[in-house]
Amino acid sequence: MTDEEALTPEQEQRIREAFRGVPFARFLGIALGEMKRGAATLHLEIRDELRRNNGFTHGGVVASLADTAAAFAILTLLEPSETTTTIDLTIHYLRPVVKGRATAEARVVRAGRRVLVISVYILDDAQVLSATALTSFIKLA
């Protein structure tokens, strides 16, 4: 999926409404950023509750940010009646996220009839690559 096109206002409104309906994303403090067809950018302000010892952001938080970004990149391609769920997530932690804002940039690599593959980059506050993820989702309806 290399042709990233702008969403219609109706599509963007539907996705923003869907995002407001994800309690776990709200709990973590994830914010929805830019969206294009097949791509989504999400942000997370790092705070003390999201850290493990040594002051690093917990790996589960980074993985959750990646998974959520992937889900919303997919949502830009789905019909309103379609839904998906994660079937795998491989993440490579390259450097710790310590402070500021983490950004997840997700892009659908392949959208098959049933399975979608998404690549996610996690950037730290200085826009340095902190983690990469490759994840797959399956269409349920």
What would your notes on this structure say?
Helices cover 25% and strands 39% of the residues. It is of the alpha+beta class. Strands 1-2-4-5-6-3 form a six-stranded antiparallel sheet. The model has no long low-confidence stretch (mean pLDDT 95).
**What summary fits the major beta sheet?**
6 strands, antiparallel
Poorly predicted runs: none
- The residue fraction in helices comes out at 10-25%
Radius of gyration: 14 Å
Strand content: 35-45%
Number of strands: 6
Q: Topology of this protein?
A:
Blueprint: H1 9-20, H2 23-28, E1 30-36, E2 39-45, H3 59-75, E3 84-93, E4 101-111, E5 115-123, E6 129-139
Antiparallel strand pairs: 1-2, 2-4, 3-6, 4-5, 5-6
Give a short summary of the structure.
By secondary structure, the chain is an alpha+beta fold. 25% of the residues lie in helices and 39% in strands.
Attribute tags:
141 residues; alpha+beta; 3 helices; 6 strands; 39% strand
